[in-house]
Amino acid sequence: MHLDPVxxxxxxxxxxxxxxxxxxxxxxxxxxxVPRELFLGPAAFxxxxxxxxxxxxxxxxxxxxxxxxxxxxxxxxQVEGKxxxxxxxxxxxxxxxxxxxPSLVVRTAEVAGLRPGQRVLEVGTGTGYSTALLCQxxxxxxxxxxxxxxxxxxxxAAHLASAGYAPTLACGDGLRGCPExxxxxxxxxxxxxxxxxxxxxxxxxxxxxxxxxVSGWMLASGMIRLVLDDEGTGHGRFTEDTVTYMLARPxxxxxxxxxxxxxxxxxxxxxxxxxLENWAGRFVAQLAAPSAQLMTTGSGVVLRxxxxxxxxxxxxxxxxxxxxxxxxxxxxxxxxxALLLWQDVGAPALTEFGMTATPFEQMVWIGSPEGPRWRLPx
Length: 378
Ligand SMILES: C[S@@+](CC[C@H](N)C(=O)[O-])C[C@H]1O[C@@H](n2cnc3c(N)ncnc32)[C@H](O)[C@@H]1O
Description:
- This protein is of the alpha+beta class.
- It has two domains: 223 residues, Vaccinia Virus protein VP39 (Rossmann fold); 80 residues, TATA-Binding Protein (2-Layer Sandwich), CATH 3.30.310.
- The chain is built from ten helices and 21 strands.
- Strands 9-8-7-10-11-12-13-19-20-21 form a ten-stranded mixed β-sheet, sandwiched between helices. The chain has a five-stranded antiparallel β-sheet with strand order 14-18-17-16-15, with no helix packed on it.
- Helix 1 packs antiparallel against helix 2.
- The longest helix has 15 residues.
- The termini are far apart.
- The relative contact order is 0.09.
- The model has no long low-confidence stretch (mean pLDDT 96).
- It binds S-adenosylmethionine.
- S-adenosylmethionine (SAM) binds next to strand 6, helix 6 and strand 8.
- The site of S-adenosylmethionine has 27 residues, from strand 6, helix 6 and strand 8.
């Protein structure tokens, strides 16, 4: 007796609705209706230490594949541009596409406040699974989805057609929006951005909204819905969600060469480098030093700006910590100053953070627009 996908789909929908009692039942019904097994393709990656191991549907059997499909899990489908289907052994590097965990897709849609009849642009089609959920809820005629990678865009189109959905699909850089099918009532991104692309503002109807995760090169992340006012300025507050999506491709981190500690100016730190392990603390650090990438070592942290060769690294020093800074950018000074400001206002969680954004200037603030604030990179 084989597993029944319909039963598994309903169980997943119930699991998500039980974990989030406030979820609109229409999203639960959408999860119960969309056959996720049609979106995963013939293979996906499973993490194996630092590498990614392809798992094939025909090797593990139909039941195990269905169990994977209907777990509330993200399945990585592409690593460093290599599809799981084409991999014949372990692959190392960062994921570049995935089938996002269903609970996160519906959470993103819930934050976006999407309602039937609204016209939405989704950035990051991926496997097409989240697109199908949007079609199920809003009607295919109201959904436009854009994917950067042509191979993924083609497979998503096939997945969606096989499941009976017919949204408008495009292939290209969604950071430019999708002008040929604008205007939209809402734009939602299933990849994260370092800054809100100007085109998104210009392709929204009045009162439209942008829902995205704002992330950066320290991979700190916050989810936000910005609503445009009459002047076209977006306003919003970050949610409590400790979630992230992979960075939009043109916003990805530059490759980093092997790290060598370089001697530099040494001093005691004024804050614990361990604050960078805190969700909001790391977010603040990223706001203050947006060009820096973060590595944690067993004994401290390393900040690196590859464009200038600047680096800062911390180490235990007696009952505190010391930092060495090398190169033109004082990365630790930037981060430390911001962490002290954040601590001065009580080290709040991300729900106390908000954003005021136009195509030309985007500020993230704590408490109110007059509070401690940082400009996002443009
Ligand atoms: C987390 S995956 C999306 C998951 C997808 N929504 C799903 O449920 O299967 C992120 C996707 O965004 C795509 N992407 C990254 N940057 C993009 C960009 N600038 N424009 C459009 N798509 C982009 C990636 O190729 C990847 O497929």
